[in-house]
Design goal:
Blueprint: E1 2-13, E2 16-27, E3 31-35, H1 42-49, E4 57-62, E5 65-66, H2 73-79, E6 80-84, H3 95-100, H4 106-115, H5 132-146, E7 150-154, H6 162-177, E8 181-185, E9 197-200, H7 201-204
């Protein structure tokens, strides 16, 4: 059963048509990669599915329902989680302070960090002192605390070395096996074999 249904969406930006009648579905507990050449709208598509950007026309259904752009609060609170290339952490705050934005429970924070391969002692460290791999793991731990149904990840391995990139994808795959739906925009061809399905925008979109 699909958790996301993209139905005949159109989207333009600065007078350029990005999507013309784009349609596809993503199933529950599926790990999907979205790929395409630079400028084909990979991140825009992710943002539209994640209700961060509006489509010009067409529908995006989440759990078989159209969620209006105006009424996104429940979607952001209970359904969606986001993982970004730049980690989206407060660099001058500690890991503990960053995780407090989701949940004020040090024990649960420590358990979430352990699940992503980090020691609880990292809680007291400022984010700016962490490596890129550690910061992306903290961002993943933040998602574990939020416990979303769908994880939208925009180039989550782009700032990481090969070893850390593989480990982040393995962690996302583990979350998929636990029941999450994972949608990843990536240009990294070396990780595509880890996905259940690869969506190539050029094969679906009349504007590309």
């Amino acid at each position: 059963m699909s958790i996301i249904s993209v139905d005949n969406i159109f989207k333009s930006f600065n007078g350029r048509q990005i999507f013309s009648g784009l349609s596809f579905e993503i199933n529950r507990q599926e790990m999907v990669a979205i790929v395409g050449k630079s400028g084909t709208g990979k991140t825009t598509l992710l943002n539209c599915m994640g209700l961060l950007e509006k489509v010009d026309s067409g529908n995006i259904k989440i759990n078989n329902q159209i969620i209006s752009f105006r009424n996104r609060r429940h979607f952001f609170r209970d359904i969606a989680g986001f993982l970004f290339q730049n980690f989206a952490l407060l660099e001058n705050e500690t890991v503990h302070q960053n995780l407090n934005l989701i949940l004020h429970d040090t024990d649960k924070q420590a358990r979430a960090l352990e699940k992503v391969g980090l020691d609880k002692n990292i809680l007291v460290q400022p984010v700016y002192q962490l490596s890129g791999g550690e910061q992306q793991r903290v961002a993943l731990a933040r998602l574990l605390l939020k416990n979303p149904q769908i994880i939208f990840a925009d180039e989550p391995t782009a700032s990481l070395d090969r070893e850390n990139a593989k480990e982040i994808i393995a962690l996302l795959k583990g979350l998929c096996h636990q029941g999450k739906t994972i949608i990843v925009v990536t240009h990294d061809q070396t990780i595509l074999s880890e996905f259940d399905r690869v969506i190539e925008i050029a094969k679906l979109n009349n504007s590309v």
